[in-house]
């Protein structure tokens, strides 16, 4: 697996990725300020829960950066085609380069990608052979962080004891309900979207591996790729 740095010049992709970073920042700053720290200071929750929250958030950001800036499997201009595999290669009529049959040309990235799954605007990168695992990690950590934040938001209103000592002059305290409603909206949207995506990804992987087990002779590239679009 090659982990070369890859950068896609696409303003639309930058906007989408910027939105994801904004959602991450919004939750990482405001949830601890409104929910975690006040409850910790009043002894309602142990400090380890705050450390876990930041830990998952960092894993999530690292997974985003790695999935975005890792080469998804760009083909070189003069690929060395292994002897005996020539029949599994073809010419791309867009970039005029040879590629294995399960590769696809991405018009946003402007080149062919080995085992391309889809182009994801949210990471501003293609999801292909070399970053598919990183993309799945990102989905997993995002699910975890979103569920964790939503659980605390729920407990804040319906389970924990009310916070007694609050500085009512603080902006976040005065606008707490609006901030938490927006956080819940973002969290539920992310959770529903990524659960759907995660599900189709897992079904695609399981189906592909079953095909390989049942048809081992075709595993070099005769069958079509499981196309999973976000
Ligand atoms: Zn191409
Ligand atoms: Zn692409």
UniProtKB/TrEMBL annotation:
Q: Give start-end ranges for the coiled-coil region(s).
A: none
Q: How does it sit in the membrane?
A: Multi-pass membrane protein
Superkingdom of this entry's organism? Eukaryota
Q: Where in the cell is it found?
A: Membrane
> What's the EC number here?
2.3.1.225
Give any single GO term for biological process: protein targeting to membrane
Q: Which PROSITE patterns match?
A: DHHC
Q: Which GO terms describe its cellular component?
A: endoplasmic reticulum; Golgi apparatus; membrane
Q: Which InterPro entries does the record cross-reference, listed alphabetically?
A: Palmitoyltrfase_DHHC (IPR001594), PFA4/ZDH16/20/ERF2-like (IPR039859)
UniProt xrefs under Pfam families = DHHC (PF01529)
Name the catalysed reactions. Answer: L-cysteinyl-[protein] + hexadecanoyl-CoA = S-hexadecanoyl-L-cysteinyl-[protein] + CoA
Tell me where in this chain the Palmitoyltransferase DHHC domain is found. 89-206
User: What is an example of a GO molecular function annotated in this UniProt entry?
Assistant: protein-cysteine S-palmitoyltransferase activity
Its keywords, alphabetically, are: Acyltransferase, Membrane, Transferase, Transmembrane, Transmembrane helix
Q: What residue intervals traverse the membrane?
A: 12-31, 43-65, 138-159, 179-208
Q: List the PANTHER family.
A: PALMITOYLTRANSFERASE ZDHHC21, ZINC FINGER DHHC DOMAIN CONTAINING PROTEIN
Family per UniProt? Belongs to the DHHC palmitoyltransferase family.
Present the record's domain note: The DHHC domain is required for palmitoyltransferase activity.
Q: How is this protein named in the record?
A: Palmitoyltransferase
Q: Which gene encodes it?
A: ZDHHC21
């Amino acid at each position: 697996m090659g982990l070369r740095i890859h950068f896609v010049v696409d303003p639309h992709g930058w906007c989408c990725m910027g939105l994801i970073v904004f959602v991450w920042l919004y939750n990482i700053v405001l949830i601890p300020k409104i929910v975690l720290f006040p409850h910790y200071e009043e002894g309602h929750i142990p400090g380890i829960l705050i450390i876990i929250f930041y830990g998952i958030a960092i894993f999530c950001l690292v997974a985003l950066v790695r999935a975005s800036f890792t080469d998804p499997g760009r083909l070189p201009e003069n690929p060395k085609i292994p002897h005996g595999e020539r029949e599994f290669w073809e010419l791309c009529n867009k970039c005029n380069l040879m590629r294995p049959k399960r590769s696809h040309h991405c018009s946003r990235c402007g080149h062919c990608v080995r085992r391309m799954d889809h182009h994801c605007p949210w990471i501003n990168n293609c999801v292909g052979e070399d970053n598919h695992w990183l993309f799945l990690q990102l989905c997993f950590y995002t699910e975890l962080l979103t569920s964790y934040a939503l659980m605390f938001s729920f407990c804040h209103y319906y389970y924990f004891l009310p916070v007694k000592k609050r500085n009512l002059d603080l902006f976040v305290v005065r606008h707490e309900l609006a901030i938490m409603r927006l956080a819940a909206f973002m969290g539920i949207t992310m959770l529903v979207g990524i659960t759907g995506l995660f599900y189709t990804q897992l079904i695609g992987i399981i189906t592909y591996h079953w095909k390989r087990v049942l048809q081992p002779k075709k595993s070099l590239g005769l069958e079509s790729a499981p196309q999973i679009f976000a």
